[in-house]
Design goal:
Layout: E1 2-6, H1 12-24, E2 28-30, H2 42-50, E3 55-60, H3 62-65, H4 68-83, E4 88-93, E5 109-110, H5 115-125, H6 131-135, H7 139-162, E6 166-170, H8 173-176, H9 183-202, H10 210-218, H11 222-233, H12 237-245, H13 254-263, E7 274-277, H14 283-290, E8 295-298, E9 310-314, H15 335-343, H16 348-359, E10 361-365, H17 372-384, E11 392-397, H18 407-422, E12 425-430, H19 436-452
Parallel strand pairs: 1-2, 1-3, 3-4, 4-5, 6-7, 6-10, 7-9, 8-9, 10-11, 11-12
Helix pairs in contact: 2-4, 4-18, 7-19, 9-10, 9-11, 9-12, 13-14, 13-19, 16-17
Domain TIR: 1-126
Pfam family, one: TIR_2
GO biological process, one term: signal transduction
């Protein structure tokens, strides 16, 4: 049987051991790495190197997860497998590194605890009568492998939390469930206020109902709309923004309650190091107040927390529900504000994010990976990460283009995970957003259990 072993250079020793065992069993094995030449098509080169193989063995490790070459090679092999089902893919786990979700559909062999026994198991799986077993996984086994991969990530996060080096990075998704308007709804509401004012000030024959038609017809970007609003609402811009944020009197939701549980000081461990939020609202602070958890909302230079306070960094600005809005409050809402934020690498918010990305394990929830500034900071931190391991985690809903899991869904998942890996992120996929609170509570519980051991 012809076998191709894909591995990172640092895992060459393991590839050699597996090669020796499989050659002894009578297989024809290729495992030497190859070098890309300038201008070569990666997918084409992968296909050329693997098209004659009956089995593709992928060595999954911390090294492969941090190697761009391995990330591209693994995903290219999986991509090629979406349309060609003749070859068998067998991931081999050699340490506690993250397992790419797109590989969880294949039966894998774990040799991290017992190299000799694991390689023996791999050799047995390659016997002719095991063909069906390694090619087709039952739904139950596939789900079991996914749960094992997720549990491993939860344990890593619990360890970071217990050691006091975990940062939670939050987006709008954590507050939407409580009633804070989603971004488009927020823009529409503020457009109505702007159009009403312009109609009154300039005698225009338009009313607030035209806001929806304007947004639908011209579809300007959110940042451009933000600039329209800022220019035309003037000194009332922040007041109108705060009014729109809290218009439905939002209070709490299960995700916010789970974050509070995660932030609760631990008896036998260190507390959550910090929270970075891109949200303007104060729902998180209000929920922490209800549980008497000490915190400090930080929204500009010069604001400092005491050692017993959880710092909550509002890197895009902060608008609490009540009280006077500081005259110098700066919110990242419009195009000009975003540009200023982007071009100032030494702004307090950029420095805070880089510091936490470089020093801590970060868990991202309730946001996307489309923000150019966030992507830039992730890329910078990953480049400065000498070991290149995937130190951060990103909870995201599994892509679902259609009602059935077709090739397009699998492709979307593969591409998104590949992109995240290159930014230093390990994905935690969920089928429904309702799973997020459970994951947060599992992390808190696992961290507490570490303190009792």
């Amino acid at each position: 049987m012809k076998i191709f072993i894909s591995h990172s250079q640092q895992d060459r020793q393991y590839a050699g051991l597996i090669n020796d065992a499989l050659v002894s069993a009578g297989h024809d094995v290729q495992y030497d790495t190859w070098t890309m030449r300038t201008g070569e098509n990666y997918l084409k080169r992968i296909e050329e190197n693997t098209k004659t193989a009956d089995v593709l063995i992928l060595l999954v490790s911390r090294n492969s997860a941090s190697s761009k070459t391995s990330i591209h090679e693994f995903s290219a092999i999986a991509l090629n497998d979406l349309s060609k089902q003749e070859q068998r893919i067998i991931p081999v786990i050699i340490d506690k590194g993250p397992i790419p979700t797109y590989l969880s559909q294949y039966m894998y062999v774990d040799i991290s605890q017992d190299i000799t026994g694991g390689i023996r198991r791999l050799t047995e799986l390659l016997e002719p009568d095991k063909l069906i077993e390694t090619t087709v996984l039952s739904d139950a086994l596939r789900e079991e492998q996914r749960e094992e991969a997720r549990d491993k990530k939860i344990k890593d996060l619990a360890k970071a939390l217990h050691e006091g080096r975990m940062t939670l990075v939050c987006g709008a998704g954590i507050s939407v469930g409580a009633g804070v308007p989603a971004w488009n709804d927020l823009l529409i509401h503020m457009l109505r206020a702007m159009i009403t004012r312009m109609s009154a000030d300039h005698g225009l024959e338009i009313d607030s109902g035209d806001a929806d038609r304007f947004h639908t017809k011209y579809s300007p970007s959110a940042l451009v709309v933000g600039k329209y609003l800022k220019n035309n609402l003037g000194k009332d811009f922040l007041k109108e923004l705060r009014h729109s944020l809290y218009i439905s009197n939002p209070e709490t939701c299960e995700v916010l309650e789970a974050i509070v549980d995660l932030a609760r000081p631990q008896r036998d461990g260190n507390p959550l190091d910090s929270i970075i939020t891109f949200n303007f609202d104060a729902l998180l602070e209000e929920n922490l107040d209800l549980q008497n958890i000490k915190y400090r909302a930080i929204y500009g230079e010069g604001v400092r927390n005491s050692p017993n306070e959880l710092p909550i960094y509002h890197v895009h600005g902060y608008l609490p529900r009540k009280g006077k809005i500081p005259p110098n409050m700066d919110v990242i809402f419009s195009e000009d504000a975003y540009h200023s934020h982007f071009i100032e690498p030494f702004s307090w918010s950029n420095l805070i994010q880089l510091n936490k990305l470089s020093q801590n394990t970060c868990l991202f929830i309730g946001l996307s990976l489309t923000d150019p500034n966030l992507r830039r900071l992730l890329d910078v931190a990953n480049r400065k990460n000498t070991d290149k391991h995937l130190n951060h985690y990103f909870i995201k809903k599994t892509p679902s283009v259609s009602k059935t899991r077709d090739t397009m869904d699998k492709l979307a998942l593969l591409l998104e995970e590949q992109d995240a890996n290159e930014l230093g992120l390990s994905m935690i996929w969920v089928e429904h957003y309702s799973e997020v609170p459970s994951i947060l509570r599992q992390i808190a519980l696992a961290s507490a259990m570490r303190g009792r051991q």
